[in-house]
């Protein structure tokens, strides 16, 4: 069947419809397939944060698919072009339009542009959601890192047990001039450059972010971690750590700052000791994600903490 929809950039007047679509699409998919629709809450309101943040961070790059006859929004695809790569996410299609090629159509021009720019396209996709995994797999994406999503209800009295080594040396970063240093560290370890994101968090526009960093005794950066404490998205990441010990110190500090909240965070499944430590703190598994790339995957060292806002890694 020919596709009765058109693609155009998402604009500010679409934000309400985009929030409704994200909420409806996620609730419908997770409820009908897994009986887990309730995890996205009863209201679309919190989902306004996504188009609003992305309008600031990646203005003009989000794709909207609209019904040709009614103009109604059928799909959204948020795109995050960076110097080293193009990242994609969230992608969502309205429940009644799923399986009609809407998501593939939104992604096709994004992939074509990235090819012209000789950049890989990257994303993190749920392994509980075969529709999403299959969409990307058919488009040629290859998984390279497996992550487990954990949630932790941080007691109001703080995490149990002693703080890990280095936790008390974690400092809050508030100077936007440090964005370049954080970005250079991520580039050195992960081959990704997204300085504009770090400058954005440090200016703390739209969302509500806390950026923390850990320095070695010699003053070199050992890691950093961004935490969103916006009520619509209580989540840790993005962040990068040189090793599991630095990651543990950063995580402890970020969790301690969120007493009484239940943040979600993604850890590479290979970070075995860190994951065991998180269980001791009370973490529970809630999802599995695979980082995928279409195009070369830069060799990576250290640990990366992906996030859903922004999905720019
Ligand atoms: C994931 C999602 C965006 C897909 O959107 P969609 O518009 O239905 O996807 P499309 O119709 O464009 O493409 C689906 C592709 O997956 C393929 N596919 C689906 N299930 C498959 C399976 N089990 N095995 C192989 N291929 C499969 C389809 O054949 C199609 O590929 P094709 O175009 O080559 O035929 C949609 O299900 C959705 O919105 N889900 C809820 C939100 C969500 O979870 N988003 C992703 C995470 S942020």
Quick description:
The chain is α+β, with helices and mostly antiparallel strands. The chain has helices at residues 15-34, 49-57, 102-116, 130-138, 179-190, 195-203, 244-256, 272-281; strands spanning 5-9, 63-67, 73-81, 86-93, 121-126, 142-151, 171-173, 209-215, 221-230, 233-241, 264-268, 284-294, 303-305.
What does this 3D model show about the protein?
The chain is α+β, with helices and mostly antiparallel strands. The protein folds into two domains: 5-119, 3-Layer(aba) Sandwich (Aminopeptidase); 148-305, Aminopeptidase (3-Layer(aba) Sandwich), CATH 3.40.630. It contains eight helices and 13 strands. It has helices at residues 15-34, 49-57, 102-116, 130-138, 179-190, 195-203, 244-256, 272-281; strands spanning 5-9, 63-67, 73-81, 86-93, 121-126, 142-151, 171-173, 209-215, 221-230, 233-241, 264-268, 284-294, 303-305. An eight-stranded mixed β-sheet has the order 1-2-3-4-5-12-6-11, with helices on both faces. The two termini are 35 Å apart. The chain binds coenzyme A.
């Amino acid at each position: 069947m020919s596709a009765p929809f058109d693609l155009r950039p998402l604009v500010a007047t679409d934000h309400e419809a985009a929030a409704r679509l994200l909420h409806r699409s996620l609730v419908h998919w997770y409820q009908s397939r897994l009986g887990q629709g309730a995890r996205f809450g009863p209201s679309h309101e919190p989902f306004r944060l996504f188009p609003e943040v992305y309008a600031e961070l990646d203005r003009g790059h989000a794709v909207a698919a609209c019904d040709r006859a009614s103009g109604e929004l059928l799909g959204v695809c948020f795109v995050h072009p960076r110097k080293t790569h193009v990242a994609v996410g969230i992608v969502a299609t309205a429940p009644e339009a799923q399986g009609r090629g809407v998501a593939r159509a939104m992604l096709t021009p994004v992939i074509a542009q990235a090819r012209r720019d000789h950049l890989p396209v990257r994303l993190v996709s749920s392994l509980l959601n075969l529709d999403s995994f299959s969409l990307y797999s058919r488009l040629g994406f290859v998984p390279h890192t497996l992550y487990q999503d954990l949630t932790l209800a941080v007691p109001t009295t703080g995490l149990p047990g002693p703080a890990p080594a280095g936790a008390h040396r974690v400092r809050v970063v508030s100077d936007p001039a440090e964005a370049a240093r954080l970005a250079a560290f991520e580039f050195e370890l992960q081959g990704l450059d997204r300085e504009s994101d770090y400058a954005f968090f440090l200016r703390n526009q739209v969302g509500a972010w806390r950026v923390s960093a850990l320095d070695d005794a010699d003053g070199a950066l050992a890691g950093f971690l961004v935490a969103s404490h916006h009520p619509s998205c209580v989540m840790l990441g993005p962040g990068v750590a040189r090793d599991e010990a630095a990651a543990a110190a950063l995580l402890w500090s970020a969790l301690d700052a969120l007493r009484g909240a239940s943040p979600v965070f993604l850890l590479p499944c290979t970070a075995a000791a860190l994951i065991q430590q998180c269980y001791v703190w009370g973490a529970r598994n809630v999802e599995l994600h695979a980082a995928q790339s279409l195009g070369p995957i830069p060799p990576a060292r250290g640990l990366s903490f992906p996030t859903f806002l922004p999905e720019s890694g």
